[in-house]
């Protein structure tokens, strides 16, 4: 019999906590009108812990669940499924948690070797539709393939045996060629000082893997591509087996190591072509976009002054900090160039998004998630929860926002009105949790007019826990 979740862990209780069901809801009740030209599926991926966890639990350790909203002819159908990773299947069979994904030394004795040998991970962070496959990623393990319609688990995907590393949760797809570029950090073993960059063509064939030694062993969450370059930032969240074996934190914020930004030409076939540039200390989980023009690379980032909530070498934590939209400039014509970062404004933002047809190219429109301070977490004093969607115009350098009031709101994804619609002409999709009813809705906005509020709202009779990232698959 499954046990109750511990009441004292914020990530296992409202609003973060898991739901204990898989379900389908046909023909959701709609307020407003779902545009008839919106035809495809929105996927949301996130942690949804199946059983009362062993030991300490962090949101990053939850079993992955995917939620899908199939949209056609003004109608919305919903489905959710756990991803049947090896960990999920073992615990489903045992009827309890026997594996601690955050601490390999805290597994049930029968599964003592599991965490170190596992290749499938948690599949709980993001999804991407590429080469005819729907892949769900974590970042420390391989991607996991699911059926795009039924969400049935298919299995860990290795690109026909060619992928020998993990896969970041933030692959990039070149809109001109359809090529997907992604990387893995600590690519050749625990705490190794390297990354592996992989390229997959539009047909889903892995065509190239480039091994790149890095200045030190680091956790790397996101990166960017431009038309001609791959930009891999190494921020000083360092990993150290030695430190862990001495009882210290395996991962720690170590600013003395400095930030090193690797710039690799897209046409390079080895790490020889990489150039490392330094920059002032900062930290970025997510980038908005990047492009190169006339030998200058521009990168837009949701930039923190330091990594939030990480242990320091001294055994303290870095505390809470918020991120701002910053523009990096990398002048490749200057042999002494550093990466220069300039704030574009001072509002808080996370989950930056764009019209992906402009990924890696000069662009105008960006969207993000933020807070207006109205919605606080019950569990952690004064912590603002994201309840606001933002729009940033790189032409006017102005922001617009729409507050969802007492509803928490997810990352907002852009969907073009048609294949040939101009940049930003389309819809913005986000999922909310109403703190009064504790129910979720899918909101649909006109992407360039978010202040008018949603043009349609599809209501669920349950809650979609706050996940991390999602993706859109156009109707085939
Ligand atoms: Fe992310």
From TrEMBL:
One of its GO terms (biological process) is carotene catabolic process. InterPro entries: Carotenoid_Oase. It comes from the Bacteria. Keywords: Iron, Metal-binding, Oxidoreductase. GO terms for molecular function: carotenoid dioxygenase activity; metal ion binding. Fe cation binds at residues 170, 221, 286, 469. Its cofactor is Fe(2+). Binds 1 Fe(2+) ion per subunit. Belongs to the carotenoid oxygenase family. This is Carotenoid oxygenase family protein.
């Amino acid at each position: 019999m499954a046990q109750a979740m511990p009441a004292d862990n914020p990530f296992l209780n409202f609003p973060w906590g898991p739901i204990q069901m898989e379900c389908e809801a046909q023909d959701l009740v709609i307020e407003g009108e779902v545009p008839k030209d919106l035809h495809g599926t929105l996927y949301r991926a996130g942690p949804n812990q199946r059983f009362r966890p062993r030991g300490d639990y962090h949101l990053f350790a939850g079993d992955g669940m995917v939620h899908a909203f199939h949209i056609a002819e003004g109608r919305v159908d919903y489905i959710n499924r756990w991803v049947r990773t090896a960990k999920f299947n073992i615990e489903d069979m045992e009827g309890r948690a026997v594996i601690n994904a955050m601490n390999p030394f805290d597994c049930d004795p029968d599964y003592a070797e599991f965490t170190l040998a596992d290749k499938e991970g948690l599949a709980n962070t993001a999804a991407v539709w590429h080469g005819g496959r729907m892949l769900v990623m974590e970042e420390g393990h391989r991607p996991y393939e699911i059926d795009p319609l039924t969400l049935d688990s298919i299995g860990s995907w290795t690109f026909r045996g060619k992928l020998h590393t993990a896969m970041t949760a933030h692959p990039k797809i070149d809109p001109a060629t359809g090529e997907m570029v992604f990387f893995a950090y600590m690519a050749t073993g625990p705490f190794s000082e390297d990354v592996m960059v992989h390229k997959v063509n539009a047909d889903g064939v892995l065509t190239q893997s480039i091994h790149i030694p890095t200045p030190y062993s680091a956790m790397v969450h996101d990166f960017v591509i431009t038309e001609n370059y791959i930009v891999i930032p190494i921020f000083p969240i360092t990993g150290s087996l030695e430190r862990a074996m001495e009882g210290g934190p395996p991962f720690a914020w170590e600013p003395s190591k400095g930030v090193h930004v690797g710039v690799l030409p897209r046409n390079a076939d080895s790490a020889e072509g990489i150039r490392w540039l330094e920059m002032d200390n900062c930290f970025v989980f997510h980038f908005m976009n990047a492009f190169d023009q006339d030998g200058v690379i521009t990168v837009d980032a949701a930039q923190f002054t330091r990594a939030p909530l990480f242990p320091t070498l001294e055994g303290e934590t870095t505390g809470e900090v918020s991120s701002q939209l910053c523009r990096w400039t990398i002048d490749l014509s200057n042999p002494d160039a550093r990466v220069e970062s300039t704030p574009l404004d001072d509002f808080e933002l996370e989950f930056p998004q764009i019209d992906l047809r402009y990924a890696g190219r000069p662009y105008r429109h960006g969207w993000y998630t933020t807070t207006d301070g109205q919605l606080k977490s019950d569990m952690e004093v004064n912590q603002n929860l994201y309840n606001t969607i933002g729009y940033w115009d790189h032409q006017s350098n102005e922001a617009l926002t729409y507050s969802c009031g007492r509803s928490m709101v997810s990352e907002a994804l852009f969907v073009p009105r048609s294949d040939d619609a101009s940049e930003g002409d389309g819809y913005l999709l986000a999922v909310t949790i109403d703190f009064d009813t504790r129910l979720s809705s899918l909101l649909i906005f006109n992407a360039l007019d978010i202040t008018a509020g949603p043009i349609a709202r599809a209501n669920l009779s349950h809650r979609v826990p706050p996940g991390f990232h999602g993706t859109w698959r156009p109707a085939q």
